[in-house]
Design goal:
mainly alpha; 75% helix
Length: 392
């Protein structure tokens, strides 16, 4: 297919997804329709791509993990276990500090779809000040992810260090100023929220037990991940967390499990993986890169990395795709850091990023209004990073 038609199809696919979600249509349905639009570029390959996706262990494992996380989140909320944790944190932090701490702390847990763990806590806390769902979605996504700019166990960062031959802590040191900027931008999200004086409830024995169903699966999965895939580790450990939450909660109703199951969410996650495979099969990343090569190195790295991060919605895949393409431009550690930061910002705000889907599914905000909080700072960070790394 003509390269320009292919790019138009991609834009039409993403535009359709965003338009449908903005009009409160089912996210899973929107993703599937987006897949069908883009598949028009390679119709003969669609059956094979579909079979490849539906038989992919990682895809099915991710769907199962996300559903179990949703179940765990619902049980923790319905039983009141999360409220006990909030009561303890409120004794130490301000109201705004809580909005930052909740997704930040849970964001460091290596749980696929972890944005769904912090969403109920953010929601409970945000209601006290009547914070709009759109802003809560932005805060949850922002502070859930920005730590991976400096987190040495972030897989894409480990991969980039390996590919570039640069010391991972040297890369982190270069990216630290960008992280500080990201943290400050996130604070601007919460600054305008009225500082509600939360009741400092007397700490009761056992209030922190609400964290146990969250920490237990992680503590089980962590050692297991040395012997098997992360997906397999969480498939084994998450049922322990669900069972623990169910036993610990005063309310023991199996309907909570039913409430936590979301067929639409399962379809959406499958659709995201299918769309990603269609994007790779169509050769879109190569087409986009071929039209950007030739620009000044800083502009090429920043622009291409952001676009590939946005299109793939997978930071690890983006790094793997980008490094071979941009290798001639990656002449020093500054350019390596620029690749990571730019691809990360594209990945963070991608409408097919699973955490965006999960957070949207929980809050059901006005999609466009939520994106008004995310898009301008994301683009601004890429521009500032290009300037910063281009002159130092």
């Amino acid at each position: 297919m003509n390269e320009y038609l292919l790019i138009l199809l991609l834009l039409f696919s993403f535009g359709t997804i965003i338009a449908m979600v903005a009009n409160r249509k089912d996210f899973g349905l929107a993703i599937i329709i987006g897949c069908l639009i883009l598949a028009a570029s390679i119709p003969e390959e669609l059956p094979d791509i579909f079979v490849k996706t539906i038989t992919d262990y990682k895809v099915m494992a991710l769907i199962t993990i996300v559903i179990m996380i949703k179940m765990l989140a619902v049980i923790l909320q319905e039983t009141g276990l999360l409220q006990g944790v909030l009561d303890v944190l409120q004794q130490k932090l301000s109201y705004k500090g809580m909005l930052i701490a909740i997704p930040s702390i849970l964001g460091l847990l290596p749980v696929p779809g972890g944005a769904l763990l912090s969403a109920p806590l953010i929601d409970l806390h945000g209601k006290a000040a009547g914070v709009k769902k759109e802003l809560l979605m932005a805060i949850n996504l922002w502070y859930r992810h920005i730590w991976f700019i400096i987190f040495p166990l972030a897989t894409p960062l480990v991969l980039l260090a390996d590919l570039s031959g640069e010391n991972i802590f040297a890369i982190i040191a270069k990216q630290l100023p960008i992280f500080i900027l990201l943290f400050f931008i996130g604070y601007l999200f919460v600054r305008g929220i009225k500082n509600v004086e939360m009741e400092k409830k007397e700490r009761k024995k056992g209030q922190l037990k609400g964290l146990l169903p969250i920490l237990l699966p992680v503590s089980i999965a962590l050692p297991l991940s040395f012997f098997m895939s992360t997906y397999s580790a969480f498939l084994i450990s998450l049922p322990a967390g669900i069972l623990t939450a169910f036993i610990m909660g005063k309310k023991k109703d199996v309907k909570m499990l039913k409430k936590g199951f979301s067929a639409s969410l399962a379809v959406a996650i499958f659709g995201i993986m299918l769309l990603k495979n269609i994007i790779f099969a169509s050769g879109i990343p190569k087409v986009i890169s071929s039209h950007l090569i030739g620009l000044p190195a800083v502009i090429t790295i920043a622009t291409l990395s952001f676009i590939i991060g946005l299109v793939t919605a997978h930071n690890l895949a983006a790094v793997g795709i980008l490094y071979p393409i941009l290798a001639p431009f990656l002449t020093d550690i500054n350019m390596v850091a620029l690749l990571y930061v730019s691809s990360f910002m594209g990945y963070l705000i991608s409408p097919i990023h699973p955490c965006v889907v999960l957070t949207y599914d929980y809050f059901h905000p006005r999609f466009i209004d939520a994106y008004k909080f995310l898009i301008p700072p994301a683009i601004a960070v890429v521009v500032l990073a290009a300037v910063f790394y281009g002159i130092i």
